Each structure stands twice: as C-alpha cells, then as structure tokens.
Structure to design on (90 residues):
C-alpha cells in the first residue's frame, strides 16, 4: 500500500471522514454543482492533498479548523460550511 493510500484509508475511517461526508451532503442541499472541492486543515490533509474523496479534490487551508471540512463550490465560487447557507447575493 502506498503512503497516500494508507493516509486516505486512515482519513476515511476517522471521524473526519464522517465530517467530510456530512459537509458534502449539506453542500448538495444548497447547490446542485458537480464541481466541489473539500478544504481541510493542513495537518488533516497531510499525505492526501490532491487526492479525491467522494469525487472532490482535497485541498488544504490554514483557515479550516482541525477535524472539520469546508466545501468550495466552483459553480457559485462560494464556500459552504455545514449547516450554513451561503450569501448568494454577492
């Protein structure tokens, strides 16, 4: 197993894997975009940045708290946080 495969398996079986799934499901309730990316804290994204999870490329951002996921929607150019509705007017 490659290093990234091990890191991805660890990610998907952790609470963060559930968080990513919940964040993606929430995002799909507020957008119909098929071009989503998931942003993780750099420590969480270590070894998996650039890989895809649930069809979304994994990126890192220091603005994302460890253990959480932030979804970016290319269609609207908006970030979507779980439980929040983006401001579509801007």
């Amino acid at each position: 197993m490659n290093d990234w495969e091990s890191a991805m398996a660890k990610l998907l079986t952790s609470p963060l894997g559930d968080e990513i799934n919940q964040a993606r499901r929430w995002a799909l309730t507020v957008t119909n975009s098929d071009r989503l990316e998931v942003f993780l804290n750099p420590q969480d994204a270590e070894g998996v940045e650039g890989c895809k999870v649930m069809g979304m490329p994994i990126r890192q951002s220091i603005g994302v708290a460890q253990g959480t996921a932030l979804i970016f929607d290319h269609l609207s150019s908006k970030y979507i946080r779980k439980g929040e509705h983006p401001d579509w007017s801007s």
